[in-house]
Structure to design on (808 residues):
């Protein structure tokens, strides 16, 4: 076997966390030195001290990583080297012959854990409210620097390259016709798979549509600290729906400091490797709506996400020591988060009400000339696969039904 | 004594850190879990892993906090309550009775430690290359949330409030005519003391002049993520010197993510309380030139700033657990960092060549209509009292001479 085919080999991989790593994590949580309480009565300064202390309490005393590990290991996991880097992925084939292959792309601060709830409904639809025609062969890779994938040691792994790597992964698995789905960075990755028309890709489903018109995108990018007074300088002729979206974009772009920090100085965030509680608070504080959702679960109001859901993901980041390496994706990125990427392939769009912004149909139609599905959901936010898997599964089935 | 008088009392304060706190610090440094190395061969992703590891080694094995503590305790230290908050300050009177009182205002990530080198030259000029008539009575307060000052438990301590508190402090010390000096936040504080014409203030010296014209200030504030393409949209008619300042502002505004993070989500930075190495990395990730200076010190270079200088400051933040409380200053602020604040009182300006931006004389004359001194120095950066104390002392003496 040549060196090349060695590297391209698909090697089975099981998650096996050492007791020592878990003990060390536990000791660190127990020895956390805390800052003082926030100076406000809400979570506008970030996750509140009380939330983080409740999280720490549960994490140290009640949480069981081995449950999560066992759950991940139920699914066939593999490593394969693409473009010089090991990619970890789960690959679950449907029993249905005509199932369609789909690669499901997580974002930040997501991971394969965020997608686990989708696997059975997608691969085995007849047991989960669907028909055999709804079946998918599911591939869930971890991005470079995330989870059990390798950590890049040099620059160059932006979302466009990840997109090409996922195309290669699907081809390597023998799929010459497949679909792609994503939210957050995953949405940017699937858009860029679409825009680059990676071999074999026939269409995408996104739950964070990249459709903001260039002029408006630029306006909000200039408004990170409010200096462009964006809402008073919107272009004329926007519909009510588009104006509402602009208000969401205004809010979102004023709450991206975490993204800018990771984009400019990821290495400074050494505490993500050293302090489990800092890692947890950093990962919780994605956007205010998601944070509220996640925080509620530690305040005793589970809604979509359980405490275990949240800590499975945080613990996964901790045990793989990927806080900084995952943050680097922001430094690698050269694309607008929400701008149009130039996708001509078929696109299905699902709009969840607590998403960073609700893509109006008018924008989706312009940005995705081959829009095959557009639906606004009654419930759910930025991490749809994690918190509203039922809706997302429905959307993937329905949205991609015409793309075969 | 009435309750009010009790609160206004000046209570002597000595720093006495328990051994246990130092042992805990050392244990945490030794148990640091590290991220992987940066993916670049420079400091563009933040302080390099090798730099921070060398800092950690020196901190755990060689650094002696007791030396710094003893040095701080050689100066008379006090606490007094102002507006409900304990303010810590050093108060060092000159032997010259008619010396000019001055309040020295530190910034972030500064502290009283960054101002210690200038106390003796300012109070006893004859012994330090000056003349008796250059003498100052020196007051060095710690900002709210910094060092041994109290931590605000509610919002409201922006730099304008800090400015008023410093004036109250000077009055309480019996100084009814005094001057103020500052850099970084301290520069904003002294500008706001002057703009508010706090009682007794005769004039200010700044080593970070806030004189950027409103139109240009707004342009760079819109360019945090580069979306305003600012350098191509400068107003017409700028001088070479003004254009050079704009190029520096462009760079500076693209490297303020730490400020935006602290301004929007200070509570999320819990790791500043929990991980000494993260605190150190966060505090040394200054503007590029400051970081380069500090990095060289840990690489064994002969630098004006020593390893002990750097670690004295970081250790003070650690032992007082003020990483998060200090960061909140950014959340409290509603003023432009570098914009004109409306000062009518006399102002002396010193421009150090490695400052965030070099204030052109033309802008200084417009921003400070009563400009009594303007000088460009040959060496030094954002923390001149710390790294170029002799030049700083010269500038304070010369710049404020006409206000005696």
């Amino acid at each position: 076997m040549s060196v090349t085919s060695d590297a391209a080999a698909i090697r089975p991989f099981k998650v096996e966390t050492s007791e020592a790593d878990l003990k060390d994590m536990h000791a660190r949580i127990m020895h956390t030195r805390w800052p003082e309480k926030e100076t406000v009565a809400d979570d506008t300064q970030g996750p509140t001290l009380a939330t983080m202390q409740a999280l720490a309490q549960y994490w140290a005393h009640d949480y069981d990583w081995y449950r999560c590990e066992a759950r991940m290991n139920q699914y066939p996991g593999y490593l394969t080297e693409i473009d010089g880097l090991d990619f970890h992925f789960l690959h679950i084939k449907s029993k249905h012959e005509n199932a369609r292959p789909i690669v499901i792309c997580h974002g930040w601060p997501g991971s394969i854990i965020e997608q686990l709830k989708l696997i059975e409904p997608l691969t085995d639809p007849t047991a989960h409210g669907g028909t055999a025609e709804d079946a998918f062969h599911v591939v869930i890779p971890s991005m470079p620097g995330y989870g059990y994938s390798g950590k890049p040691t040099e620059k160059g792994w932006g979302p466009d390259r990840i997109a090409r790597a996922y195309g290669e992964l699907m081809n390597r698995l023998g799929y010459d016709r497949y679909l792609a789905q994503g939210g957050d960075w995953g949405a940017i990755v699937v858009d860029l798979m679409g825009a680059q028309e990676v071999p074999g890709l026939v269409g995408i489903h996104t739950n964070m549509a990249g459709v903001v018109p260039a002029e408006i995108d630029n306006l909000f990018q200039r408004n990170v600290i409010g200096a462009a007074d964006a809402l008073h300088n919107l272009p004329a002729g926007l519909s009510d729906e588009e104006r509402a979206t602009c208000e969401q974009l205004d809010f979102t772009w004023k709450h991206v400091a975490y993204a800018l920090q990771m984009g400019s100085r990821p290495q400074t965030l050494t505490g993500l490797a050293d302090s489990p509680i800092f890692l947890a608070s950093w990962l919780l504080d994605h956007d205010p709506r998601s944070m509220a959702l996640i925080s509620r679960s530690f305040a005793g109001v589970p809604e979509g996400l359980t405490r275990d859901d949240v800590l499975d993901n945080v613990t996964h980041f901790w045990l793989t020591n990927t806080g900084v390496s995952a943050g680097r994706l922001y430094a690698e990125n050269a694309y607008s988060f929400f701008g149009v990427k130039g996708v001509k392939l078929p696109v299905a769009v699902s709009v969840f009400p607590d998403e960073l912004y609700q893509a109006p149909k008018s924008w989706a139609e312009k940005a995705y000339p081959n829009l095959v599905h557009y639906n606004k959901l009654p419930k759910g936010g930025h991490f749809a696969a994690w918190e509203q898997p039922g809706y997302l599964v429905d959307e993937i089935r329905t949205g991609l039904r015409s793309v075969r | 004594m009435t309750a009010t008088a009790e609160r206004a009392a000046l209570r002597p304060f000595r720093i006495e850190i328990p051994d246990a706190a130092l042992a805990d610090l050392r244990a945490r440094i030794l148990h640091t879990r590290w991220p992987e190395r940066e993916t670049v061969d420079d400091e563009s992703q933040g302080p390099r892993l090798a730099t921070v590891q060398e800092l950690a080694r020196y901190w755990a094995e060689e650094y002696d906090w007791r030396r710094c503590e003893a040095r701080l305790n050689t100066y008379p230290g006090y606490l007094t309550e102002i507006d409900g908050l304990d303010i810590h300050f050093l108060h060092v009177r000159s032997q010259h009775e008619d010396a000019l009182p001055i309040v020295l205002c530190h910034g972030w990530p500064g502290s009283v430690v960054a101002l210690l080198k200038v106390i003796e030259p300012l109070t006893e000029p004859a012994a330090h290359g000056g003349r008796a008539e250059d003498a100052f009575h020196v007051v060095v307060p710690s900002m709210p949330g910094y060092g041994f000052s109290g931590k605000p438990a509610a919002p409201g301590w922006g730099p304008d409030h800090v400015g008023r508190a410093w004036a109250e402090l000077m009055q309480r010390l019996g100084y009814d005519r005094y001057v103020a000096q500052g850099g970084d936040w301290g520069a904003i504080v002294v500008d706001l003391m002057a703009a508010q014409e706090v009682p007794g203030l005769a004039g200010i010296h700044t080593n970070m002049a806030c004189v950027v014209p409103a139109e240009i200030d707004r342009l760079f504030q819109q360019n945090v993520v580069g979306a305003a393409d600012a350098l191509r949209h400068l107003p017409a008619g700028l001088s070479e010197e003004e254009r050079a300042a704009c190029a520096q502002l462009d760079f500076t505004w693209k490297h303020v993510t730490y400020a935006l993070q602290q301004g929007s989500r200070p509570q999320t930075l819990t790791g500043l309380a929990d991980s000494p190495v993260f605190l150190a990395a966060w505090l040394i990730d200054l503007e590029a030139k400051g970081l380069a200076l500090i990095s060289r010190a840990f690489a064994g270079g002969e630098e004006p700033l020593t390893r002990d200088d750097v670690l004295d400051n970081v250790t003070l933040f650690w032992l007082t657990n003020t990483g998060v409380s200090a960061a909140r200053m950014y959340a409290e602020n509603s003023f432009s960092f570098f914009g004109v604040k409306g000062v009518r009182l006399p102002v002396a300006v010193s421009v150090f060549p490695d400052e965030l931006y070099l204030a052109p004389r033309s802008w200084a004359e417009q921003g400070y209509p009563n400009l009594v001194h303007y000088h460009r120095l040959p060496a030094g950066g954002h923390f001149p009292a710390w790294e170029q104390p002799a030049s700083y002392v010269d500038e304070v003496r010369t710049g404020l001479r006409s206000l005696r």
Summary: Chain B has a mean pLDDT of 96.
